[in-house]
Please model this.
Amino acid sequence: VIGVLRSGIKHGPVSIELFFGAPSANNAQAMILHAANIFSVTRQLRYSKDSTALSLDLAIFINGLPIATFELKNRLTKQTVLDAVEQYKKDRDPRELLFRFGRCMVHFAVDDQEVRMCTHLQGKDSWFLPFNKGYKNGAGNPPNPKGLKTDYLWKEILTKDSLTGIVQNYAQVLKEKDKKGVPRWKQIFPRYHQLAVVRSLLDDAKKKSVGQKYLIQHSAGSGKSNSIAWLAHQLVDLTQESVSGKASTVAEKLTGYAIRPGKLGRTAEDTIFDTVIVVTDRSVLDKQIRDTI
Model:
């Protein structure tokens, strides 16, 4: 689904675009096309042809293509995010078309206090990662005086602008090799802290331009290489227009935090950063980051 949203479908001489990404500031036609995308939500989605009574709590679509599924729980009914995870592992057959690898970007388990995500359902072997903000340098989410602890999921992440940016700049399917050299496919969806750090840095660079210094701390296994790669690719696409405030309000709202070169008409003179240099102190990390970028 990531591939067809980004690149459309080609068959012989025919090419069909299935999604229009974030437009550049001065491209009125691209703005119209992007605004025509249909972001939709389906509750109690019946996903099985064979067992037609089976349904999941929620699914999100872009132009009719599924990008995310959800199992929702509520601690008031004595069910938590862990029950939602178990439901995906035990009750959701990964052979169903919707749950097969690559057919959907991400699967969320959600309750009123925590969020977890999985990009590859494999029954009991499904691996769910936290998708939380963190609280007091630890796990979980901070108290929310205005609502549920997990409302950031739909207020920050599942907006049209945010999903557009994720499709264009973050979500991907990679081909990797295991220790024996056997190739395998891996689907990646950014975790909350990765989106937060990259978006925060890009926003600050838009406002302050070059010359700033930052310290970003990631714990072991939290995806440093991807954060670096996503940031590097989008830094070289930041334009002077964004910094000077000339970009239209519409374009700012439609933002992917990057404007991709090529179709969208950016010129080399507009860029803030001409080159991004990544320095690391370990050879194994150097290869990992280089491969990722």
About this structure: The two ends are 22 Å apart (CA to CA).
